[in-house]
From TrEMBL:
HAMAP family: ATP_synth_a_bact. Belongs to the ATPase A chain family. It is found in: Membrane; Plastid, Chloroplast thylakoid membrane. Key component of the proton channel; it plays a direct role in the translocation of protons across the membrane. SUPFAM superfamilies: F1F0 ATP synthase subunit A. PROSITE patterns: ATPASE_A. Keywords: ATP synthesis, CF(0), Chloroplast, Hydrogen ion transport, Ion transport, Membrane, Plastid, Thylakoid, Transmembrane, Transmembrane helix, Transport. It comes from Myriopteris lindheimeri. Transmembrane segments: none annotated. The keyword Transmembrane applies. This is ATP synthase subunit a, chloroplastic. GO terms for cellular component: chloroplast thylakoid membrane; plasma membrane; proton-transporting ATP synthase complex.
Length: 248
């Protein structure tokens, strides 16, 4: 009887572990539709920061930049140089705004998750988190990159661009289509997985040592946020640049 009771308790413990959720999303119920309010709220905060920062730093522009203006110009020049490196001297200019916007949105989203404790905001149900901590955001960014990839190829080479899918032999058509289809998925899951893992690790450490861990983990999280944003923007630029190159 004791052995059976122990087995029953173990099964019950496994059931409790399996029922643990990574996070609870916050939804709005509008009629028959369920709106993912978490992403809408936090992404609007990120967009407001991105709009307010340039407006505040470009009021008194100087020919010799100093302070915040110098930092903003450095960031923009870095984005431009990175895009040029991935896409080439002839093709990079029209895509600097797209790549720059993606980098800044991902960076500020990641940074908000690393620096701002969204979970301290009490909600009736669910919780808030960084926009990139949600698969819906990362998939949307990846789909935008995919659309830009196909647009760049069609704009550069016209309908002859579709001929790359039957090179070097038409037998590879399904594989070539699958390759281009999986690239956006890899971009989205890479960003989502890294940000989610970072926030989970920090949350666990903070729960264990709440007074010590937040001090070193905050700059570490900010550094990780910048790296992930740079990787995502660089891969997006390389992905788009690939479609503008001739087939080899």
């Amino acid at each position: 009887m004791q052995i059976e009771q122990l087995q029953f308790d173990e099964i019950g413990n496994l059931h409790q572990v399996s029922s643990v959720e990574v996070g609870q999303h916050f939804y709005w119920q509008i009629g028959n539709f369920q709106v993912h309010a978490q992403v809408l709220i936090t992404s609007r905060v990120v967009i407001a920061i991105l709009l307010a920062l340039p407006a505040a730093t470009t009021r008194n522009l100087r020919s010799i930049p100093t302070g915040t203006q110098n930092f903003i110009e450095y960031v923009l020049e870095s984005i431009r140089d990175s895009t040029r490196t991935q896409m080439g001297e002839e093709e990079y200019r029209p895509w600097v705004p797209f790549i720059g916007t993606m980098f800044l949105f991902i960076f500020v989203s990641n940074w908000s998750g690393a620096s701002f404790p969204w979970r301290v905001i009490q909600l009736p149900h669910g919780e808030l988190a960084a926009p990139t901590n949600d698969i819906n955001t990362t998939v949307a960014l990846a789909l935008l990159t995919s659309v830009a990839h196909f647009y760049a190829g069609l704009h550069k080479r016209g309908f002859s661009y579709s001929g790359k899918y039957i090179q070097p032999t038409p037998i590879l058509l399904p594989i070539n289509i699958l390759e281009d289809s999986t690239k956006p998925l890899s971009l989205s899951f890479r960003l989502f997985g890294n940000i989610l893992a970072d926030e989970l690790v920090v949350a666990v450490l903070v729960s264990l040592v709440p007074l010590i861990v937040p001090v070193p983990t905050t700059p570490l999280g900010s550094f990780t946020s910048a790296i992930q944003a740079l990787i995502s923007a660089t891969l997006a630029a390389a992905y788009i640049g690939e479609s503008t190159e001739g087939h080899h």
